[in-house]
Amino acid sequence: MAAVTCELTWLRYLFKDLQVNFVTPAKLYCDNQATLHTAVNLMFHKRTKHIEMDCHAVREKTQSEHIAAAFTSSQTQVADLLTKPLGKTIFHTHLRKLGITYIHAPT
Question: How far apart are CA 84 and CA 67, in angstroms?
Answer without folding.
Answer: 25
